[in-house]
Amino acid sequence: MLMGPQNLPENIRRVRERIERATAECARSVDSVTLLAVSKSQPAASVRAAARAGLTEFGESYVQEALGKIEALRDLPLIWHFVGSIQTNKTRDIAENFAWAHSIDRLRIAARLSAQRPFHAPPLNICLQVNVGAEASKGGVPPSALPALAAAVGALPRLVLRGLMCIPPAEADLGMQRRRFDEVAALLASLNAVGAHMDTLSMGMSADLEAAIFAGATIVRIGTALFGART
Fold first, then answer.
1. Residue-level pLDDT at 228
2. Domain 5-223 falls in which CATH fold?
């Protein structure tokens, strides 16, 4: 039976239990993992219900849809993350309305976000998306190009380069899932070893959050396990 928004409190409890079990198994604090509720395709009412159940951080992939929800929910102290691919004509809306952008894979996009971030707002938190499976259907910079992009984005004003994000190929095997996430964690460690100061690994979704946490994820992006399958 598919889970749905009407089951949100129970769905949230189950996801939090999965996070607690995974962090306990690898001797991490449960507070070291942020549950980011991916609310794309969900109405503002579902986001409000999730907020009433204790969630504060929400991820959106479609700018126009997200702006309507952000406006409708301004009375709540929510933190908004943009997790979808970014078009150049949408950078101003993202720069002005979000606290995080997870899917940066081009310097041009990062430079526009930097230039368009309002000066009255804190710097925009940035994650670079890495394409660990070399999948043409997915965004992300290849690992070999990551050091140059990280250096360039890290030098931009009005942005803070926080870490890396990935959407690896779907794998049923826990070991293979872990291998992909370990690769991203190693990339972050190698960048920090040469002067970067990143603290974020945005990786793991409903089907593979445990493997991501074992590899060091600090943000897991969960949609289906909270809101049900999208129609």
1. 85
2. TIM Barrel (3.20.20)
